[in-house]
Every structure is written in C-alpha cells, then in structure tokens.
Sequence to fold (319 residues):
Amino acid sequence: MKKLSVITLSVLAFFLFAVQGLNAQTIDEAGTAFNNALQLKDTDASGAITAFKECISICEKLGDEGNELKSKAIGIIPGLYLKLAKDAYTAKNNDEAIKFGEQTIEASKTYNSPETEEKAKDFLAQLYYGKGNELLKAKDVDNALVQLDKALAIDAKMNKAVFSKMLVDHETDDSAQMKELYDLMVTNGPADDKYIEKGKGVMAKQHFNAGVKSLQAKNAAKAVESINESLKFGDGDANAYYYLTLANNMLKKWDDALASGAKALELEQKDQVKVIFELAKAYEGKGDKAKACENYKKVTTGPNAAAAKYQIEQVLKCK
Fold:
C-alpha cells in the first residue's frame, strides 16, 4: 500500500478538524435554540414551541450526543400547547381554545406525554360541552349535538352533556331517546348527581305533556298511562293529579278519580273549585248522591258553576 503523502494527510486532518468544528457549532445552535425557547415559554408559548422544535431538529442530526437536550425539549412542548388552549379560554375565545386543545392531544401523542394528553382531554371535553350549549342557545341543534357527542366521546360519564342532549329530545318529543339518556345518567351516577335530579324533572314534564295531549285528543286511557308514568319521576303537582282525575272520570273509573282528586285537592293552593267539581262527578258516577250534592254545592264560582247548579237542581235534585 502506498504511503499517504504529507499533503494528503494534511488535507484529511484539516477536514476532520472542520467536521468537529461543525459539530461543536451545531451543539451550540441546539443549546441556543433551547435557551431561546426557555426565555419565551412564559410570555410567548407559540414562539417557544417553534424554538423547541428547532432544538429537537438540530439534536436529531447529532444522534446520541443530542439526546439529552432533545429529551428535555420534548418534555416541555405538550404543556405549552395546553397553555395556549387555557390562555385562549381565559380570553373567552373558545374556538381557539378548542383548536389548541386538539393540538395538545396530537402533540402529547407525538412526544409521548400521556399525562398531558389526559389533562388536555379533560379540558377539551369541557370546551366541547360549553360550545354545544352555546349552539343550543343559538338554536343550532345539529351542530350542538356534534359538540356534545365529542364531549361524551372523551368522557361518557359527563352527565351534564347527557342532560343537554335530553333537552334537545324533549323539544322534539322523542320520549324513547330521552329515557335512554336518563338511564345512562343513572348508570353513570352518583345517585345524588344534580343532573339526574334535573333529568327526573324533564322526564316528568315530558310524560305529563303527553298525557295532556292525549286527554285533549279524547284518549283518556293513554292520558292515564302517560300521567302515571310522569309520577314515577317525582311526587307530582296539583295539575298532574287534576288531569289524572279528569281522565279517570272519562274512563268511569270512579274510585281512581276520587283517589287522584283527593291528592289534587290536597296540593292545589289556588283553584280548588275545579277539583271539587271533578270529585262531585266521581261521586255521582259511583252512585253516592249525598257526597255528589255536597261537592256540587261548593262549586259556586268559575266555569263549572252553571254545570254544578244544573246537576244540583235538574239531575240529582239535591235538597
């Protein structure tokens, strides 16, 4: 093998020295980018992210030599995205907050930060819920449901989002879907969750309204079924028992009418006369003339006064 000339060796030595100098310069560049990012992270999270990514890019070219600095930069980036999301939320810019929240999840996966990813998901679920409710108030139901479903895809036990969906179904009279959502809230728990309590109220109202509609359509049997269903979700008010009495009288279920009428009378604070009139009808149907007359005589005001007088004088001939 021929010996390398002195000139060749000199050239090679110069080249190796230059490469070493380049590596040293690149390490300095990585450190500079890292330090710049640290200075920016509290005041300019977006700029800090860019600087940290620049640092990572340089470190990757260095191989093992840059791993430590690269690891430090990687550990900081996901949290900066989350900071951007929270800052946007504080500034009341929910759309920006959602965008950065979604970027936080992507960055957490890219840079292997499961803890930050979970924090971002929790935060993002709340943002989706808030956006969904904003859209509901604006009557943009379809897009509202998209946002609420996004929240529930992250946290299936978010009962307040389930309750918001219940309100949509209440507006469209979708009782079956409402029941599914209510059952989901109960399954999620806890038993004293305020949204479960609110859900009970909505379910009661839904079935009561269905009962009133059935009564108006002269379908007394369906009315009784619906109103009794409403009572399963709460104690019921005077109106519920009053309409139940009307329906029972239409069905000639006199004893049931007397029972529901007594409860309506107990709860009614303003217009007891209308309830007393229905009780009188139930007693009359049952064949208890004395009780019927006693109650008809109490109906001296209101829209039923003339009908009560007729029953007293012409039909029952009360003394």
Q: What stands out?
A: The radius of gyration is 37 Å. Residues 1-25 have pLDDT under 50 and may be disordered.
